[in-house]
Amino acid sequence: MEVTLVYLLLVSLTLASCRTYYDSFKVYQVTPKSMEEAKLLQELENNENYDFWSDLRTLHSPVNIMVSPDAQYEFENLLDTYQIDNSVLISNVEGTIQTESLKLRYSPRVTSGQVSFEEFMRYDDIVAYLERLAQDYPNIVTTEVVGRSFEGRDILLIRISSGGTNKTTIFAEATVHAREWIAPPVALYVINQLVENPNNSYMYQDIDWAIIPVANPDGYEFSHKDTRLWRKTRTPGTICHGTDPNRNFDFNWRVIGASHWQCDQTYAGRMPFSEPETIAIRDYTLKHKDDIKLYLAIHSYGLWLLYPWGHTTDEPDNTAELNELGQLYADAIYAINGTTYRIGSTANLLYYAAGTSIDWAKGVAGIDLAYTLELPGGGTYGFDIDASRIQPVVEETWEGFVAFHDYIYSKFVNVTFFKVYQVTPKSMEEASVLKELENDENFDFWTDLRALNTPFNVMVSPDAQNKFEDLVKSYQIDYSVLINNVEETIQTENLKVRNTVRVTTGEVTFNDFMRYDEIVAYLKRLEQDYPAIVTTEIIGKSFEGRDIYLIRISSGGGSNKTTIFAEAAVHAREWIAPPVALYVINQLVENTDNSYMYQDIDWAIIPVANPDGYEFTHDDKPENFKPIGGDSQWPLPTEQAFVSNGDRAEPYLIVFWRKTRTPGTICFGTDPNRNFDFNWRVIGASAWQCDQNYAGFTPFSEPETMAIRDYTLRYKDDIKLYLAIHSQGLWLLYPWGHTTDEPDNTDELNELGQQYADAVSAVNGTEYRVGSTANLLYYAAGTSIDWAKGVAGIDLAYTIELPGGGTYGWDIDASRIQSVVEETWEGFEIFHDYVYQVTPKSIEEASVLKELENDENFDFWTDLRALNTPFSVMVSPDAQNKFEDLVKSYQIDYSVLINNVEETIQTENLKVRNTVRVTTGEVTFNDFMRYDEIVAYLKRLEQDYPAIVTTEIIGKSFEGRDIYLIRISSGGGSNKTTIFAEAAVHAREWIAPPVALYVINQLVENTNNSYMYQDIDWAIIPVANPDGYEFTHDDNRLWRKTRTPGTICFGTDPNRNFDFNWRVIGASAWQCDQTYAGFTPFSEPETMAIRDYILRYKDDIKLHLAIHSQGLWLLYPWGHTTDEPDNADELNELGQQYADAVSAVNGTEYRVGSVANLLYYAAGSSIDWAKGVAGIDLAYTIELPGGGTYGWDIDASRIQSVVEETWKGFEIFHDYLYNKFINGTL
Questions:
Q1: Distances 726 to 735, 799, 1119 between C-alpha atoms, Å
Q2: Which 3 state secondary structure label does DSSP give 371?
Q3: C-alpha span between 230 and 68 (Å, rounded)
Q4: Does residue 748 surpass a pLDDT of 80?
Q5: CA 748, CA 763: separation in Å to the nearest integer?
Q6: Does residue 1056 surpass a pLDDT of 80?
Q7: Is residue 1189 very low, low, confident or very high in pLDDT (cuts 50, 70, 90)?
Q8: Alpha carbons 781 and 795: distance in angstroms, whole number
Q9: What's CA 14's distance to the chain center, in Å?
């Protein structure tokens, strides 16, 4: 028995000492494109002939697999048979290992106690170096054994300090992952530079450094002696060795992105902190957590600087600061060798990874600044970077560490400048705590503490910053540092302005921000040079006596002409606003190509509506003003100062002044855009005169707002469009600001707004969002546009929030002026073209027009629905003069929408006429197919593919057309996971059926996609509103509704007719309206058909898709409220995957969000009903691309590109459902 035991022990020792050889083993890089391909590869994972070097995470992501010689023929056959993309990454693994081993064997070893950056040092060499430093530099270096590895190696930490306790500390750990050999050299270089380079001694005077160069010594040594790519610790398990230390920390341990299977690379351990290595890091960190202000985990590879979180895509509370500091690190490194790091949270930028050290450091130890540094890679595997690259990597990374030091020093040690914090109170208690600071002179609230969960900005003096941070941390109030050094920012901006070459008097420039006097001189010069079209008028004087100039551009012809009015620079600091106003003026007056734009429409523009404030933002040293602290030197130590004004001292902002300059009892200025007399000061405006949005002591207390008021009221019957030019934010806002209720002409405001946004986007890709002030931005009562609509009766009123830039958003660089003004001009052209339609404003006007309806010379294209709502009427040549005289005599707003109807029709008809009709039973994506052609195609598929295709008539339209549904399935009985899609609910959206048909075509007739209906059924209605669809072909191209007759008008909007919050908002009770919701829910046979089918299969349908156009939105519920659905995170995540897949094809960019938040209120839609009643959690409206003249009349030449890119999104939908409901991997 004893002999046997000895024998077994000898065998065991022999086996343990033998290294595995990999002669003729190959490494393949394989990229699965479908779930079928992924499943084939997954089946190999437990086969001993296959070693997966990287995870099979997602489709279209490469995975590296080492394959034994015996299995290579079989494997290559498999790849060829299924046409799986692949390449040979390593043709002989053993040869590669031998080459690397040879290099290591012949590398000169480092002298004991020394450091080298020409080779990768072994654990013992590193320990010897640290111990030598402690011996040679005892005044600044101490070493500490913070723990022992499983195999008994010391985990050594070095502390570099000038002495003292409780000092601000930077902590760094390297080589948690054993194979990441570049990590120890970086840690050692930082240590070397701090200790042995006297030029850097300043870096440990006030800040201590605690660094662990090799946090996983067992694994690190094992990667040198045995398995080069070993990642984990060496703790033995029941089957396999080792735990991933960077999944072993006790914060959201093993919830996602970590494995419970001990043989996996990301095995999280049998329990949190199961490893002595992670326990050592934990215990040291907790002992010093109050001192550690920056936690760094040094890894490789990837060129990422990652911050928390890894378990969720939610961003941490101090994202802005983490990004800002991360960018400083990245910029410092880039300046050396051009190496570019990407910055972001682990889950958003890389992948899910729960239980990491940085997540634990922030989430448990409370260290707000925590990063993983993913250093450069190289070599064959990425981790085996060549030793020749050590020096450049450590040198460039050192510069990033210098940036880290400087930031920590300025934030926690040398606090001598003012900072701006962004703070978000979540409860009344938190708000009360912050409110108590408002009267403390150390705190200046830049924005109002308006509402819970709404961020506001507060500037804090140097003396109060530690107190403030302790306060917000103790109450767990969310905060971040918005501006780290206010004075430095001001100096940078002032220097730019000071060094700018001024413009010649009377000229205009778009290379610089012009001053008030220069702008006035330009307006006067235009009046002098172009007297036939330009007049200037002083419509008022500012408090300080400056003239408020308005320029009028007109072809003449007397009064009562349709007018577009624009005011800019109401808010003083918004410097980009005057250039936009001036560019519009310049293009109208000095570019003869645009002379048509003032023939029938006048323009009235105020380039600088708040001249006192505007000049105040330019003057960096106003007379009679003293800085904080009395006689200290100018420039100020903050961007705030006090003015001596009798017995009062009042704060003002230099660069960021927003208000007028009217003096109050305590502070200067009123926010002009809260001073208009419409719901004045009811919400979103302040009664406290020192606030940024102080509404004034009365409405129209300011001479500037009085000037705008008086001019507008004088011409209110002529002004058809009111524009307030502001910045920054890329919003086009319409009323109201005092309520989330939508205005009566929301549809029109949205439609025109979207035309503006599309025109601007077409220039540089700048994306505007369109919506009401209160719904899209915030509450703001007393604004100029609300007053213009609510009091002056100007129905079309917008605030244009131009692009921002610079540090604060308002300090956009002058180099960007040209691009901004050019793209905005395109939007102004749209405004002009729109204003130039017939809009009755009174019953009298409507009656005059109504009398024309039976005259054969007039053809009303759209209904005369309501006052102040434009409609279109076609007029014969014989009647045009009479018509124009009529509308002018009654002062009815009108414009020419189409100058030559026949030409437009011929163009469109010619396209249709010259299109070869599709052969019966076939499909085409070169043209828009008619209803009968679509039905014939569905029937042919059912005939040719009976094993997978069935068609079903699920209902009949009002005019008796069959509503066809096609079901694609591999069979296998009922209760199968199903994707449901309906298209062409809105008749005019011709691009919707081709998308539905392409999905059907790809599923049925492309055998490569057969895997997509093996486990998931598809139920698709290509034309859900066949009557309306045919009517758009035969009669009215822009028809939207069904064709059910009403008492006055035809049709109901099917997508407002579903019985979930039916007609509560965003739907009409008037049957002639486009959004008429029907006389009852489900009044339409079309919506009943959809309802009945869905309810029959509601337990199987996991995804409901409503295919619409146009807009490039992927919308999810709700449409009746801005509240988000309970699964908003999932809807956003899946939606973004769809958007990314589509974008990858042609660059088409979709926006993802709820209907009410992203688009407009729309109650009674199919997706709201699908989720709210049928219980289908995943429900989207796909708003496809638009085009043509109206948006819905996209050209047939674009069908192919649209359907192909949208198909990629449908693949994403399939894969997600497969993973969630079939494969169970989500």
A1: 15, 7, 29
A2: strand
A3: 19
A4: yes
A5: 24
A6: yes
A7: low
A8: 17
A9: 58
Tracing tokens 């000092």 back to the chain, one arrives at: 167
pLDDT digit string (tens) for 592-615? 989 989 988 999 999 999 999 999
Residue with tokens 């205009």: 508
Query: Measured in Å, how far apart are the chain's first and last C-alpha atoms?
Result: 53
Residue 620 DSSP one-character state: S
List, in sequence order, every residue forming a beta bridge with 652; answer none if it has no partner. Answer: 641
Measured in degrees and rounded to the nearest 5, phi and psi for residue 977 equal -55, 130
In whole angstroms, give the CA distance from residue 911 to residue 1188: 13
Exposed / middle / buried, residue 7 (Cβ in 10 Å: 0-12, 13-18, 19+): exposed
Q: Which residues are catalytic?
A: 374, 801, 1183
**Distance (Å, whole) CA 212 – CA 171:** 8
For residue 625, what pLDDT is reported?
A: 32
**Highest mean pLDDT (candidates 76-85, 459-468, 856-865):** 76-85
Output the average pLDDT for the chain: 86
Contact of 676 with 782, CB cutoff 8 Å: yes
- Token duo for residue 872: 């279109």
CA distance linking residue 111 with residue 128, whole number of Å: 9
Which pTM value belongs to this model?
0.41
Mean pLDDT value across residues 684-691: 84
Which of 409, 784, 735, 386 is closest to 577 using CA atoms? Answer: 784
Q: What is the distance between the alpha carbons of residues 1204 and 1148, in angstroms, rounded to a whole number?
A: 12
Q: SS3 for 539?
A: strand
Torsion angle in degrees (nearest 10) through CA of 755, 1074, 872, 604: -40
pLDDT at 218 exceeding the cut of 70: yes
* Bridging pattern class, strands 625-626 and 640-645: antiparallel
Give the bridge partners for 963, in sequence order: 955
| 3-state SS, one letter per residue, for 268-333 | CCCCCCCCHHHHHHHHHHHHCCCCEEEEEEEEECCCEEEECCCCCCCCCCCHHHHHHHHHHHHHHH
pLDDT digits (tens, 9 = 90+) for 26-64: 889 899 888 788 778 877 865 667 877 655 545 677 888
3-class secondary-structure state, position 423? strand
Token code pair at residue 1075: 């959004």
User: How many helical (H) and strand (E) elements, i.e. helices and strands, does the chain have?
Assistant: 32, 37
pLDDT digits over 1088-1097, tens only? 999 999 999 9
Could you tell me which residues are beta bridge partners of residue 64?
A: 29
**How confident is the model at residue 490, as a pLDDT?**
59
Residue 1099: other Cβ atoms inside 10 A: 13
Q: How far is CA 1015 from CA 33, 168, 1001, 1135, 1191, in A?
A: 17, 58, 18, 22, 38
Instruction: Select from 703, 664, 701, 663 the least CA-distant residue to 681.
Output: 701
Strands 719-727, 648-653: pairing is unpaired
Least Cα distance to 896 among 1110, 596, 604, 1186 occurs for 596
CA dist 646 and 667 (Å) reads 12
From the centroid of its chain, how far is CA 526? 42
DSSP assigned state of 411 = I
Contacts with 958 (C-beta within 8 Å, 6 or more apart), sequence order: 1027, 1042, 1043, 1044, 1084, 1085
d(CA 946, CA 1004): 11
576, two tokens: 């980009």
Residue 887 contacts residue 838 (beta carbons within 8 Å)? yes
Backbone angles phi, psi at 565, to 5 degrees: -110, 135
What single-letter amino acid sits at 24? S
Query: Is the Cα dihedral 1205, 1129, 344, 253 positive or negative?
Result: negative
Q: 1181, exposed or middle or buried, with CB in 10 Å at 0-12, 13-18, 19+?
A: buried
- With b meaning 16 or more CB within 10 Å and e meaning fewer, what string describes 339-368? bebebbbbbbbbebbbbbbbbbbbbebebb
pLDDT digits (tens, 9 = 90+) for 477-532: 988 887 777 766 655 555 455 455 567 789 999 999 999 999 999 999 999 999 99
